[in-house]
Amino acid sequence: MAKFELKLPKMGESVAEATITNWLKNVGDTIAMDEAVLEIATDKVDSEVPSEVSGVLVEQLFGKDDVVQVGQTIAIIETEGGSVEAPKTAEVVAPIVAEVQKTIETAKEIVVPADFSGSDKFFSPLVKNIAKEEDVSVAELESISGSGKDGRVTKEDILKFVESRKSSPKTVTPSASSLAQSSGEVPKVTISQPSTQAVPVSVNGGDEIVEMDRMRKLISGYMVASVQTSAHVQSFIEVDVTNIVKWRDRVKNAFEKREGEKLTFTPIFMEAVAKALKDFPGMNISVDGDYIIKKKNINLGMAAALPSGNLIVPVIKNADQLNLVGMAKAVNDLGNRAKTGKLKPDDTQGGTYTVTNVGTFGSVFGTPIINQPQVGILALGAIRKVPAVIETPEGDFIGIRQKMFLSHSYDHRVVDGALGGSFVKRVAEYLEAFEVNREY
Question: Is residue 412 among the annotated active site residues?
Fold first, then answer.
């Protein structure tokens, strides 16, 4: 008999930890190769961890809701023969005990990590615990210059920040009335931040109380954090997509037969957005404090509704390098895997701009919330037949055209109306210039 260490696999460049949500196998159960042993959750997606060997599960090193780092051993599987040496119990447990001891030195008890999902930066559970105990906000935590690997914030970094904050002199602001009486000058008005305390909700006997699931809690946190972070402003433009509708009707059957993929409108729109981002790289950026990060790659997020009613945003990497066939394959692949829960954590990482199709549900246009740390998101409205004025050399006349609205939300901290409006107008120009006789 030999024993195999099942480790938490690498799940993408920016994913360093995961939470165990459910053990699918119990101690003593027989496991086949590639069979799922447990379910885990990152801050983006849920997934399963399969076994790399066949054998019997003899030990679970973590329990449900425990946070595990990538590369840590999470279970021991006993195999038939093989050359894998059985790990000594002390060797497996020692790192865990050491980590617990470090935590105890910092806190009197183990604290559930605070929710810092509004940040795009990675913070260890220990740092999050300290931040929660010391009432350090997400903005303050992000402002700390980390001394760890790749600039990560360490325990020492956040403790130094907390100490310096405590030792900083507090500024006492006299009241407006006392200023006016003593100096006769017009006082400066200080606008206080709105209270974040939740408004009490009345509940009667007929109401049903249902707790949000884990993903809905994350989405809730992301949306509130985005509104508090970015100064949202919108631009709207109506687009004539008659040529696109005619072209798709003409080629969709041949396209599916030749490529093995259904042709929807989404890849056509995504292609136009990718082109516009190349024309206006000022929309393909992120904000980090007082700095603007210009993104090298164009990675398009594609908001997708899940059967549960929740939302997820898989990302098409290097979208500007794909032709229409490649874009269609990417859209269909990510959309199908999103619906079946087969997305990998890396599939939702690295987006630089997001597109959401509100027209799928019949909405004419919408005002979407920016997917942080991006600075823009485009909502695609429903395509409708409408009467329109058509200009010709012989004069104007009324005709039936296929039209839709594009709704562009952007971050007014770094994107002004000229850029935000010009970008969405360029997307519209690409769509209206679509050739009905185009080959795919």
Answer: yes
Q: How many angstroms separate the CA atoms of 199 and 393, rounded?
A: 62
Residue 381 and residue 427 in contact, taking contact as beta carbons nearer than 8 Å: no
Catalytic residue among 34, 65, 288, 416: 416
pLDDT digits (tens, 9 = 90+) for 281-294: 999 999 998 999 99
Q: Say if residues 307 and 339 touch (Cβ distance below 8 Å).
A: yes
For position 217, what pLDDT does the model report? 87
* Opening angle at CA 44, ends 70 and 93, nearest 5: 25
Pull the structure tokens for residue 355. 């597109």
User: In degrees rounded to 5, what are phi and psi of residue 71?
Assistant: 95, -10
- Catalytic residue at 290? no
Task: Cis check for the bond before 314: say yes or no (omega within 30 of 0).
Answer: no
Name the pTM for this structure. 0.64
Distances in Å between the Cα of 191 and the Cα atoms of 180, 188, 215, 268 are 18, 10, 34, 46
Residues contacting residue 47 through CB under 8 Å, at least 6 positions apart:
11, 39, 40, 41, 343, 344, 345
